[in-house]
Structures are given as structure tokens and as C-alpha cells.
Amino acid sequence: MEQIERIIRVGQIGLKSAPTKEEMKRIRAEYREAKKYPLNLKDFPEASPEALDEFAAMARELRRNKKNVKPVVALRIALETLKKYKSLGKGYTGIMADVLDYVAKNPEMLAKVQ
Question: Cα dist. 81→11, 74, 93, 104, 112 in Å?
Fold first, then answer.
């Protein structure tokens, strides 16, 4: 069976703080229970072309109004550093961005490398 893993960071999807251990246990239990039931595609009617157009327009509007747009940049780093981050698995570029954000927001960290 395929394992699904998703990293959720504080600030995403309305989280104000990291989930507690008890919350994570509850989430995992709910997930295990949900896996027992097959997905019935008959429960999901096919969308009309008009509805798909409306969804596409809504998605474009959401992207346009996104406040925290992050630009894509090219960055040269040491091969060993890249290997360490890649060893973290899928989503390693987000982790790299988080580390850079943290250092940029903490002047004492920047002072150590200058």
C-alpha cells in the first residue's frame, strides 16, 4: 500500500501552532479508519464545462491575489550541502527556503557568517 506523507508547517492551512502529539494521534487514527472505506467515484458527479471554466477562473483569481508570492531563484550551493538537503526527501526546497528565511530574520545569525 502506498504511504502518503505531507509536511504541514505552522501558518499553513490555518494552523496557528504545530499540532500536539495528541492531535497527531487523532489525525492518524482518523486516517487509518478512512482507509478502510473505498472511494466511490459515483459520489462525485462529472463537472460541466461551465463549472470547470468557473473553477479555472477562481483559481486564476486566487493566484493573482496571493499575498505571499515567492519568486523562483537560481542559487549556487556546494554539492555536499545540496546532498544533505536532498536526503530529507520530497519538499527539501521548502526546508531550504525556511532555513534562509530564519537566518534572514535573525541578525545574530547573519553576523556569524559575515
Answer: 27, 15, 12, 18, 18
Report yes or no on whether pTM surpasses 0.70. Answer: no
- Residue 7 phi/psi, 5° resolution? -90, 125
Considering only CA atoms, which of 67, 1, 66 is closest in space to residue 35? 1
pLDDT at 4: 56
Question: What is the Cα–Cα distance from 92 to 114, expressed in whole angstroms?
Answer: 25
Mean pLDDT of successive 10-residue stretches along the chain, which has 114 residues: 56 63 86 83 79 87 75 91 92 89 84 70
Q: Specify the DSSP class assigned to residue 45.
A: P
Per DSSP, the three-state class of 77 is: coil
CA distance 51 to 59: 12
Residue 70: count other Cβ atoms within 10 Å of its Cβ: 9
| Residue 61 near residue 54 (C-beta atoms within 8 A) | no
